[in-house]
Write a structure and sequence with these properties.
The structure holds two protein chains of two kinds. Chain A is mainly α. Helices cover 66% and strands 4% of the residues of chain A. By secondary structure, chain B is α+β, with helices and mostly antiparallel strands. In chain B, 27% of the residues lie in helices and 36% in strands. Chain B has ten helices and 19 strands. Classes of the chains: A mainly alpha, B alpha+beta. At the A-B interface, α18 and α19 of A face β6 and α3 of B.
């Protein structure tokens, strides 16, 4: 007598699976899948034209001109067409961020030297994200312009009559490298902390030191962290719109998809956006799949007996110190400078040339006095409140279901709940537009009728994974026997969740929600695309959130409320950064450092 | 009191078969132990009986009731988990009272029963403590009290003493036996500790590789093991390959190297040629102490002092491997290289058909 395995779970536990799964199918899978519908009539040969794929650069990488007694050096990188630019730029950014992030993590995590804590603090600063303003300050500090940037002014003061700066794709790349290397840094550092110290101590014990130790033992052990960080940096580079907008470099995929919302969404057209979205999706997801496969094969760093011991840092030799102070420290300072510059810009009257002028608090006053600007803050707070409430229910359900409910569809929920992290926001935005404008035209789900509703749904889906993973990780720490003990005493599923699971797992839920909330606040891709469909910031009833307002201010040519619009954006950016710092700190306290890095990244 | 019948139960997890046509019959009011090495399927079997797993084949009966598809709480079987599964956010009182609150008993009745059961397990006065404020032994008692308070038909204990130190384990197993006798609840006790199983249980089922290989009283299991695995697993044992010289229904005459010994016969015939011999090595002596003795002569390879006993690794004459024997420490200690005679009662020497050698190799991971 052979029985089919029964689905044993009661109705309540199936709800934990079915509700989030249905939402993900409806508002994640369906929109992504619908992108392909626009491609049936698309002429793919278009993507092979020089505008998209070029064989050689149409700009020279560096131009040097002499004007008067001055030398002007503009570093522009290259321009080989939309697709080539995006891919090459992402690869360059990945290589650079991986090299810098890994080096700094090893330096700070493995070695001891005077000033180590300063290095660690500097490396964390770019984790605070102020979209658009960050790129704007990079442009002020390092960007090429005829008035000269801050670096050139410093060189001038040193007696060098040279104006040097980045422009075009090189500016985009520099902006991305300076802020994304931190992603690699925190991932590598977290992996390094999880490595059993005895593995490294054994090598030291056998006489391995310095570079040899790093190359032969440390690097192989932290490779999973390096690859995870590199993949994330690659994806962030691919979908970044802030850099291209600020440096006015339109020939990357992200900008082209963004343009669809600026130019074609309302009037129709822009057929290549679907193809580019799909291409972007493939470019983003394929490395992610390889990473997952690779990570599932490599966990030997933890394959030692007994509890791992924390590492005692090794004294850094003189050569190491020279490299640390003369090479690494300047890079860390250069990367932290834009974030510090944002605070300066927020407090100054005007900053367009090399240095800021005048101190003022007016930029903060404008945040509240200008209706269009304040509307953005209101919108963000409302969106976060609604989305976080929904995420609390859906994210908890999904996390609980993945950890506890055995059913044939649970693996699907497991995979689907994490995938939104791997899909670029711009692709999602495009998918939402095509899908909902298609099937729900004229209803409150049509992004042209009520962009706010669609934006909140998109936030929920895109930022729920943080809560799902946090709840899931929290539940892994709780043996399922505590629930089974209640079950065999007669408690039903909902009662067990209320009496046993929530009291034990609320910290993970809270930490996950905080992360989801902070990433909603700083979300860019959906905010500047779907968020833009409700009008611009001159309209007091627009639907854009904070990041949309920041983008609008950064692009604005005229003063607002008597203030420089970019400085107002910076003021907004500082509030956002403080909020991020506060929330990340709170989540850190709830989860412990290791937990947060694995979830946040 | 409830009788439990497990009838031909098979349980698979994906490609892994955890239980293969397992059958058990646990009598009313009995304390029944399931004994086996880790990974043998004993906890899975307990979870099938508890209702946490549904078998692909077979059924579980409580008295005349088929409970195979019933939820754990519908069966009236309560489990005490290996990690005790105490709820850290609840006091001792709340932990114990939980099952009664779920059953919506009146408050004074809950109070009365919680007090009674806490007294029974010796935790009176600790009602307001949280689990982290208790010692390991006290936590274990809370887990037991929480299960007993709902007056279950069946009590299921999954290695409940594993996380305790040796001294406490001895004391608590005595208490568990006493409480079980007092309440007369049919109890199944899962353990990998053979001493615990033999000391506690009315009857023992020995499991290996997803199967119940043997069932019997502790005495039968220890002294008259029918299955090679039982003989090998219970007690300190040594295994050798031997040539069969002669055999009848009860005994078999064997040659290990050049040494001839007599052993209890478990299905060996002269035609087999060879056999596997299992010695209950802890019963060995350096002098003949029994009328019916098996004698092994050989050279001492090494000796190891174990406190109460001495381990001698002996290479029997003409044999290519060493065998371990354990003799009481008061005996004269032989030196390595010395020639000695080792004696065992024939009842401690069991011979099985040679096919069993593969099984032994598998268990030893060779």
């Amino acid at each position: 007598m052979i029985r089919k395995p029964l689905v044993r779970s009661d109705v309540a536990s199936m709800l934990f699976v079915v509700v989030p799964l249905s939402i993900l199918i409806m508002f994640f899978l369906a929109p992504i899948a619908s992108i392909t519908t626009g491609l049936l009539t698309f002429d793919w040969r278009l993507l092979l034209t020089p505008f998209y794929v070029g064989l050689s650069s149409v700009v020279s990488p560096i131009t040097v001109t002499h004007v008067g007694g001055e030398t002007l050096i503009a570093i522009r990188g290259f321009d080989m067409g939309v697709i080539t630019n995006s891919v090459l730029n992402a690869l360059i950014v990945t290589l650079a961020t991986t090299a810098i992030g890994t080096s700094v993590a090893i330096l700070v995590g493995l070695f001891d030297f005077p000033g180590r804590r300063l290095f660690a603090a500097l490396a964390m600063i770019p984790l605070l994200v102020a979209p658009f303003v960050n790129a704007y300050v990079v442009k002020l500090l390092y960007g090429f312009n005829l008035q000269g940037n801050t670096v050139s002014a410093v060189l001038e003061a040193l007696g060098l009559h040279v104006k040097i700066g980045v422009a075009g794709l090189a500016g985009v790349a520099l902006t991305q490298i300076l802020s994304f290397y931190t992603i690699v840094y925190v991932n590598v550092l977290a992996t390094l902390r999880a490595v059993d110290a005895t593995l490294i101590e054994q090598a030291v014990n056998l006489g391995s030191r310095g570079f040899k130790l790093v190359r032969s033992v440390v690097l192989p052990l932290i490779a999973p962290g390096v690859f995870t960080g590199a993949t994330l940096a690659y994806m962030l580079s691919l979908e970044d719109v802030g850099g291209p907008i600020v440096f006015s470099f339109r020939k990357v995929i992200s900008y082209q998809v963004y343009l669809f919302f600026r130019q074609y969404a309302l009037i129709g057209g822009g057929g290549s956006a679907a193809a580019l979205s799909l291409l972007m999706l493939l470019l983003a997801v394929i490395p992610m799949i390889f990473l997952r496969r690779y990570l599932s094969l490599r966990y030997y760093a933890m394959l030692t007996r007994g509890a791992p011991r924390p590492l005692r840092r090794i004294k850094l030799g003189w050569l190491g110190k020279v490299v640390a102070y003369l090479v690494v420290l300047p890079i860390l300072v250069a990367a932290a400078a834009p974030e510090i510059g944002i605070f300066v810009l927020a407090l100054c009257h005007r900053w367009v040339g090399p240095f800021p002028t005048g101190f003022t608090l007016n930029n903060y006053a404008v945040l509240f006095s200008e209706p269009g600007v304040f509307r953005g803050i209101e919108n963000s707070l409302i969106y976060v409140a609604i989305a976080a409430t929904a995420i609390a229910f859906l994210g908890f359900s999904a996390g609980y279901a993945i950890a506890r409910v055995r059913s044939v569809v649970t693996p699907a929920l497991d995979a689907l709940s994490i995938t939104p992290l791997a899909v670029p926001g711009l692709v999602m935005a495009f998918g939402y537009f095509v899908f909902l404008h298609g099937i729900a035209r004229g209803t409150p789900l049509d992004p042209l009728i009520s962009p706010a509703v669609v934006l909140v749904i998109a936030y929920i889906v895109r930022k729920m994974p943080f809560t799902v993973r946090s709840v899931f990780a929290g539940l892994l720490q709780i043996p399922s026997s505590v629930e089974e003990a209640a079950q065999c005493l007669g408690a039903r599923r909902l009662r067990i969740v209320k009496n046993i699971v929530l009291p034990l797992a609320w910290r993970s839920l809270a930490a996950g929600l905080l992360l989801s909330a902070v990433y909603i606040l700083s979300e860019v891709s959906l905010s500047v695309t779907i968020g833009a469909l409700g009008g611009d910031i001159t309209s007091p009833n627009h639907c854009g959130p904070i990041t949309f307002v920041m983008m609008s201010l950064i692009q604005s040519p005229s003063t607002i409320g008597g203030a420089q619009p970019q400085a107002v954006a910076a003021a907004m950016g500082t509030i956002l950064m403080l909020l991020e710092a506060l929330i990340l700190f709170a989540a850190l306290a709830k989860l412990g450092r290791r937990g947060i890095v694995s979830i946040a990244m | 009191m409830t009788r439990i019948v497990v009838d031909n139960v098979t349980k698979r997890f994906g490609r892994v078969t955890a239980l293969r046509r397992v059958s058990l019959d646990v009598r009313e009011g009995e304390l029944f132990a399931i004994l086996g090495p880790s990974g043998c399927g004993k906890t899975t079997l307990l979870r099938v009986i508890a209702g946490f797993e549904v078998p692909e084949e077979g059924r579980v009966m409580f008295d005349d009731e088929d409970v195979t598809f019933k939820r754990p709480d519908e069966r009236g079987a309560v489990m005490v988990f290996q990690n005790w599964a105490l709820w850290p956010h609840m006091t001792v009182y709340d932990n114990v009272a939980y099952g009664l609150k779920v059953r919506r008993l009146p408050k004074n009745e809950i109070d009365r029963r919680v007090k009674m059961v806490l007294e029974l397990v010796g935790l009176k006065g600790l009602e307001n403590r949280y689990p982290h404020q208790l010692s390991g032994g006290q936590q274990q008692r809370v887990a037991l009290a929480r299960a007993l308070v709902v007056e279950p038909r069946v009590l299921l204990l999954d290695e409940p003493l594993t996380n305790l130190d040796a001294r406490l384990r001895l004391r608590l197993r005595g208490e568990i036996r006493k409480i079980q006798r007092e309440l007369g609840i049919t109890t199944i006790y899962v353990t990998h500790d053979q001493e615990e199983a033999l000391a506690l249980a009315d009857r023992v089922a020995v499991m290996w590789n997803g199967k119940v290989v043997e069932m019997g009283t502790p005495d039968e299991i220890y002294h008259r093991p029918k299955h090679l695995f039982t003989a090998f697993f219970i007690g300190k044992t040594s295994v050798a390959e031997a040539k069969v010289i002669d055999a009848d229904g009860n005994y078999v005459l064997l040659r290990i190297g050049d040494v001839v010994i007599r052993a209890l016969n478990h299905g060996v015939s002269v035609d087999d040629g060879s056999a596997v011999v299992v010695f209950k090595a802890e019963n060995a002596r350096l002098k003949p102490m029994w009328r019916d003795c098996a004698k092994l002569v050989g050279r001492v390879l090494v000796t190891m002092y174990l406190g109460a006993s001495l381990e001698i690794r002996l290479v029997p004459h003409g044999y290519n491997r060493d065998l371990s024997f354990y003799i009481p420490i008061e005996e004269e200690i032989p030196r390595p290289g010395e020639e000695v005679e080792i004696y065992l009662p024939v009842s401690s020497v069991h011979a099985y058909p040679v096919e069993g050698l593969e099984l032994v190799k598998e268990i030893l991971g060779e």
